[in-house]
Amino acid sequence: MNRDNEDNRPVLVCDLDGTLIKEDLEKCFMAYLIRTKTLKMRALALGLILTPVNLVCKWIERGSIWKVWLTGLTDEETEECFNAFFSTWSYSICEPVLRRVRGFFGRKILLTGSFERLAVRWLERSNLRSAFDEVIGCRVYPNSIRVERHPYGRTKLVCLGNIRPSVSLGNEYADRHVLGISSTAVCVGGDPKLASALETHPDRVIV
Fold first, then answer.
1. d(CA 66, CA 189)
2. pTM for the whole thing?
C-alpha cells in the first residue's frame, strides 16, 4: 500500500482501543454477539479452528488472517448487529487523548486494529467522525472472512506507507513501531514495556 502525505500537512496518528477509548471495541462487540447468541454456530466452530492462527499472527505482530465472527452474516445483518450493540454499550473516552486530537492542526488518522466498519460506526454514533480525516482499520475481502488488512504492530507501518507522523498516540508495546517513527510519541495508559521501548525517543510523552 503506497501512501504519502500529499498535502504536506503534519500528520497525527491515533490508536483506538486502550488509547482513544479505554475499552477494546471489537472484543466488546464479539462478547455482545456471544451473549445475545447472535454469533452463528458455524462462526463458533471456525473460531475454534482459526483463532489459534490469529493468535500466532498477533504474537509476531503481523495482524490477523481471519475474521470469523462475520461468518454467515450478511452486510445488512452486520449493520443491524452494530446498531443493537451500540444502543446498549457504554465506553470511556480518554479525555487527554481526545484533547490532543482536537487540538492538532493537520491531517488526523485513526489507525486501529478493530474492524473498520465497526470503528466508523462508533465514531458516527459518538459524534466523533469529524475529528478524523481518515480511518484505517481492519478490512476483509468481499464476501469472505479472510482479512485483507489488519493494522497491528509492524503491519501499521505498512498501512501508513511513506507517512511519517508528527504525533502518534498508542497504549501497548505493539504500538512502538508507529510511535518510534513519529516526531512526538505519546504513550497512553502507563504501559511500562511501551515506555521502556521508547525511552531513548527524543520527544516521548506519557499520559
1. 29
2. 0.92
